[in-house]
Write a structure and sequence with these properties.
Helix content is 22%, strand content 25%. The protein is α+β, with helices and mostly antiparallel strands and 592 residues long. Strands 7-6-5-4-8-1-9-10-2-11 form a 10-stranded mixed sheet. Strands 19-22-29-25-26 form a 5-stranded antiparallel sheet, with no helix packed on it. Helix 6 runs parallel beside helix 8 (239-265). It folds into 3 domains: 32-358, Alkaline Phosphatase, subunit A, CATH 3.40.720; 370-429, no CATH class; 438-590, Jelly Rolls. Strand 13 and strand 14 form a beta hairpin. InterPro entries: Alkaline_phosphatase_core_sf, Sulfatase, Sulfatase_CS, Sulfatase_N. GO terms for molecular function: arylsulfatase activity; metal ion binding.
Length: 592
């Protein structure tokens, strides 16, 4: 019996439709791997159990490393914002204009395209949770750099880790609980809502960066712990700071475990690349496997970072000894996801896929560069030429204990030449003397946040700390005092102005004015809000940064802002009592 021709026809049509659907971009996108990129803050190479530290408990991260790929020679930058810029762009941070960690020097140039923009253009959902540190005001804000969802803080560090003031997609909000747990909660919720399409989640934690605020449940495990005092820098070690750092590292580990467990329960683990990395060396003198230097140093201890990549059943467990760097993360993920860079600027990094997949493709030895504040070190597979042009043989002296007395002319010449060329070709692009002006009223954003960090005090007003990132203005006693923000108004129009402040009862009745050129608005302080420093009982080691207070929002009113480079000035028209308000933040909401 022959088949019905009509049945054959419909069968062919059906097969054709299935093949067509399989070839459509929507279908292709669902096969792309999800990516969860986790970055810790000030966690050194030695702050993990997997790297030999017997005093810190990190079983979840250790398990990721054991079951995934570990790099034993992976390099970041000596401080936060340059590393984060290189993660975002795959390009050396001087090319992106990053030269500082605050007051605008941390901002990533607007002509640089980010990893979020690249993956978003290929159909990915994109979200960032935690510390940003590459520009606070739009269009430098993460929501304007490819991240559809953002929850965290855009500054360099934060002064309170317990239900702090944060922001959600540009709007001020209140955190819920311990900050790392809170960021993880939001990341997990986002993952749960986006299981039907590929996602890129940037989970940028802010610990064990100081202040060393630790919840009791973690601190109690370490507060009386015996800690190694025989390591290289034991005489400089602050024991409670070390204990707090380890407690914070264990909290990080617990949260990493939560993320991985959630991916597993959602049956996403086989199609998700999980990366774990720190942004620089340890923020204190503690055990670091004998490596020279800590955070801020271009030596091994300041820039050698854990780098773990886990992709269940796709990447085989291995330890890779070849050199790699933050600039390699973007090209590697693009290669693994089958994405081509849609933008013109070339990447400085290279894809690590041949190493990750144990390909037989030849791997060329390379040179890795480390820079901070004018200091540059370079290293190849065996040697480092430090910032003072001393040569060390890392294969026999990984701790840089003794420079090579009579270095090989060929090796010394190669690294010296490479350093000079990098300084002249890459570092020369960095403008450390540029004028930092803060944009207001970007067309695609409703809110602009102007923290005290970006303001300039005049008269007797003082900053609460020499470290500006999480500071507030205090000691305002005279009507001749003022605060200014050097701003570039991008869109003329009406803006609602809100100040976050504290004030003693004696300041009630004082009058505040906000002024731009001839435009002004004023308001009377109607409510006292005088708080002590908050959550100081969780500081386990003395802090250098500013303490935080509980700041109250007060709507000043609506002000017209004219387009152009115009400073915004905050003044006291009248002061009742001995002191005026303390100022943490000015929020401008575009109304037009």
């Amino acid at each position: 019996m022959f088949p019905n021709p009509k049945s054959i026809f419909y069968l062919i049509i059906g097969i054709g439709l299935l093949l067509f659907q399989a070839c459509t971009p929507e279908h292709t996108m669902t096969t792309k791997p999800n990516i969860v990129l986790i970055v810790s803050d000030d966690q050194g190479w030695g702050d993990l159990g997997i790297n030999g530290n017997p005093y810190v408990h990190t079983p979840n991260i250790d398990r990721l490393a054991t079951n995934g790929v570990q790099f034993s020679r992976f390099y970041v930058n000596p401080v936060c914002s340059p590393t984060r810029a290189e993660i975002l762009t795959g390009r050396y941070h001087p090319r992106g204009g990053v030269y500082s960690t605050s007051r605008g020097g941390e901002r990533l140039d607007l002509d640089e395209k980010t990893i979020a923009e690249i993956f978003q253009s290929s159909g990915y959902k994109t979200a960032a949770f935690g510390k940003w540190h590459n520009g606070s005001q739009p269009p430098y804000h993460p929501n304007n750099r490819g991240f559809e969802e953002y929850y965290g803080f855009a500054s360099g560090h934060w002064g309170n880790y317990f239900s702090p003031m944060l922001e959600h997609n540009g709007e001020v909000t209140q955190g819920n609980g311990f900050i790392i747990d809170d960021f993880t909660d939001h990341a997990i919720e986002y993952i749960e809502k986006n299981t039907d399409q590929p996602f890129f989640v940037y989970l940028a934690y802010n610990t064990p960066h100081s202040p060393m605020q630790v919840p009791d449940v973690w601190w109690d495990k370490y507060k009386d712990a015996a800690i190694d005092t025989t390591h290289r820098y034991a005489d400089k070690e602050k024991m409670d700071k070390t204990r707090a750092a380890y407690a914070l590292c264990e909290n990080l580990d617990w949260n990493v475990g939560r993320v991985v467990d959630k991916l597993d329960s959602l049956k996403l683990l086989e199609n998700t690349i999980v990366i774990y990395i720190s942004d620089n060396g340890p923020n204190g003198w503690r055990w670091n496997e004998g490596l020279k230097g800590i955070k801020g140093s271009t030596d091994e201890g300041g820039v050698r970072s854990p780098f773990i990549m886990f992709w269940k059943e796709t990447l085989k467990p291995q330890i890779i000894s070849q050199l790699a760097s933050t600039i390699d993360i973007l090209p590697s993920l693009m290669d693994l996801a089958g994405i081509t860079n849609p933008y013109e600027k070339p990447l400085d990094g290279v894809s690590l896929k041949p190493l990750l997949t144990q390909s037989e493709e030849a791997w060329t030895d390379r040179i890795v560069y480390s820079h901070w504040n004018g200091r540059v070190s370079v290293r190849n597979q065996n040697y480092i030429l430090d910032s003072e042009n001393q040569l060390y043989d890392l294969s026999s002296d990984p701790g840089q204990l003794q420079p090579v007395a009579q270095p090989s002319g060929a090796v010394f010449s190669e690294l010296t030449k490479a350093k000079d060329e990098w300084i002249n070709s890459v570092l020369s692009e960095l403008d450390r003397d540029r004028e930092e002006i803060f944009p207001v009223g970007y067309n695609d954003s409703k809110y602009t946040l102007l923290p005290a960090r970006d303001g300039i005090p005049h008269g007797g007003i003082e900053r609460s700390s020499i470290h500006p990132n999480s500071s507030f203005f205090t000691n305002w006693t005279s009507t001749s005092d003022s605060i200014t923000w050097d701003t570039d108004i991008l869109t003329s129009g009406k803006y609602k102005a809100t100040v976050y402040y504290t004030a003693k009862p004696s300041a009630v009745g004082s009058m505040l004015q906000l002024k731009q050129g001839t435009n002004e608005v004023s308001a009377t302080i109607k409510e006292a809000h005088d708080t002590d420093y908050i959550n100081v009982e969780y500081d386990r080691s003395p802090r250098d940064e500013s303490f935080e207070k509980d700041y109250m929002p007060m709507e000043i009113g609506t002000i017209q802002l004219d387009k152009g480079h115009h400073p915004i000035t905050m003044k006291a028209l009248e002061i009742k009592g001995p002191k005026f308000i303390e100022v943490r933040l000015l929020v401008l909401e575009r109304l037009d």
